[in-house]
Specification:
Length: about 140
């Protein structure tokens, strides 16, 4: 149950930031560029090799086993590499934002639980009051 909620929060974070569209456009661009490079580059014999070349370029691994030699192939490789860096930066930022939201959500949940406990102070047993007191002490220690 909790994992579903966290997964839903992550998906909502990607959608809110518009990263889902950016990633979708990137995937389409990646495959289209691979097709164009396969067509125009004489040293790339298959679409699979072109995908490998694009992957190596996009991740900046650049093994050098396949290289672009035509002007168009090099331009597409540069564009894909820069675009990949931007997309990876966006994904990193969105995931960081998600973890910040998750931390805020957890803090708010703890505060809400604490407030519910405070509302029911007269009904609490001595043991429950001691546990609540210990939670407050632990909270002060963390500061």
């Amino acid at each position: 149950m909790r994992r579903k909620k966290i997964r839903r929060m992550l998906i909502n974070t990607f959608k809110t930031a518009g990263a889902d569209k950016i990633i979708g456009a990137y995937i389409v661009t990646f495959f289209v560029f691979a097709l164009a490079i396969w067509i125009w580059e004489p040293g790339i014999g298959s679409y699979i090799d072109s995908l490998w070349f694009c992957f190596a370029s996009a991740t900046s691994i650049g093994y050098g086993d396949i290289v672009a030699v035509t002007f168009l192939g090099r331009v597409l490789t540069v564009i894909l590499s820069v675009y990949s860096i931007a997309v990876i930066a966006i994904i990193t930022a969105v995931i960081t934002g998600f973890f910040m939201d998750l931390a805020r959500f957890r803090a708010n949940s703890s505060v809400q639980e604490f407030l519910v406990d405070l509302e029911h102070l007269p009904e609490m047993s001595k043991e429950e009051l001691e546990q609540l007191s210990q939670r407050v002490k632990d909270f002060h220690k963390k500061k």
